[in-house]
Amino acid sequence: MATYKSVTPSDIEILVQLMQDFYAIDGYPMDAEQSKKLFSEFISNENLGKAWLIESGNDIVGYMILTFIFSFEYGGTIAFVDELYLTEKSRGKGIGKESIAFLQAEAAKLSLKLLYLEVEPHNLTAQKLYLSAGFSVHKRELMRYKIE
Hints:
Blueprint: E1 2-6, H1 12-25, H2 32-44, E2 49-56, E3 59-71, E4 76-86, H3 95-109, E5 115-117, H4 124-132
Parallel strand pairs: 4-5
Antiparallel strand pairs: 1-2, 2-3, 3-4
Helix pairs in contact: 1-2
């Protein structure tokens, strides 16, 4: 069984290490110093969202981040599951399923209206997990505009 610890500034080093491991899976670039600054800002402003370390036994096995968005379409605050990562050795043990259930319960406590998330097209295991937890494929395309 997993437990969840709200992150604090003292957790930033381990969060950045976990994030580096996560981003390496798909070869995403990551600036560790920038991520440390972003975690400091995020943790200090509860209006931005919430983050947790995922623990199993005495080990930290992952992390989750919810970022908040105000939506007129959905009638209030929604959240984006910005990050959900489990270490390789902790996968396939039900911790992902428990973690999604935890996020859904937290979303209800926070009176959130909707959870969004992204999943890589090749990550069929994650897709299966999210679908089994009640998520559905959104019929809209996610687009982005990067401000330089």
